[in-house]
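Hi W., the guanosine-5'-triphosphate complex you wanted:
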Amino acid sequence: MVACSRDSLGLMEKNASALETQIIPQPQEEAGTATSRSAAMFTGGWVTAVTVASSAGLPVVSLGAGCLYVSLGFLYLLYCSIWHGLRLPAHSPSEDSLEAAYYLLPPWLDTRVLNWGVVGRVGVGKSSLVNALRGVRANHASGAAVGIGHTTWHAQPYHFSSGVDWPAQLVRLWDLPGAGTLDWPSETYIMDSGLRYFDGLLFVISDACLESELAMLRQLRHFQVPHYVVRSKIDQDVINNAEDNSVEPAETLAEVRYELSAHGCEPSRTFVISSRHADYDFDDLLYTFCTEVIRQCEEIFGPKHAVKR
Ligand SMILES: Nc1nc2c(ncn2[C@@H]2O[C@H](COP(=O)(O)OP(=O)(O)OP(=O)(O)O)[C@@H](O)[C@H]2O)c(=O)[nH]1
Ligand SMILES: [Mg+2]
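Structure:
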């Protein structure tokens, strides 16, 4: 386990200017495309070289060009096999298994980097959590869109600030569309959004837990996908419960925690937060989540990516 102080994560500031962040779109060439391109270069190079060699009398420079082309093709093939080789998480379906035919790796998910997804029912506050974790507001240029309806329609990757003391470029935080809509039904959400190929998930819930959400959580546990349960919008519940039942905030929190625990959510991986105010368990979530990400980075990419101290 990586020992790191909260300050060393460089993420504890909650204002946008201190944590100026940006979306860094990167080309996500599929392994198949890259391999076929290199194969074409390789074949083309050999054809050129053979043609040139067989027709004596052509300038030596053509032969040289053919050989250079072959070498480039070979180098590119080598590059593809190294960099486009899939680094699938240990919990993902094994490549030759029957379930791999149903649980497909999404074409947009680049497994060369660490991928964490923010998932859950539509409207629970996923995009707001992404913004809070990155320290930006929804109206910030690089903020995730937040709204009162079905707002996020496509999976969208975000990076942490380059100012954080850990390899921001190696980690993507994905804001996913919500489950329980016509295009993203809860029953097939885990399959449709490729959740088994993520290195970890923040499963967001708000209000009372639906049966469909409990079913998704059961599946994540069954498939051993590392995840945290994030109960958002607690600030609203605290206000409502005080007005409706004259209940103190601590009692509301205890009630929510008890309910989640009764649903099988492990307390050490469950956080009750307000994304709006980055409050309640928010700092603990940030710290625990970042510590796990750093550990995964060290495991996957080597100790040189350890957090700077
Ligand atoms: N009070 C309060 N409101 C929140 C919190 N988190 C989100 N909201 C509000 O809840 C609404 C939905 O938030 P989003 O972040 O867009 O929810 P989402 O899960 O990304 O929604 P979809 O992309 O449509 O699935 C917005 O009006 C947010 O302002 C919170 O912690 N507290
Ligand atoms: Mg959203």
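The pocket of magnesium ion (ligand 2) is lined by residues 126-127, 151-152, 175 (CB under 6 Å).

W.
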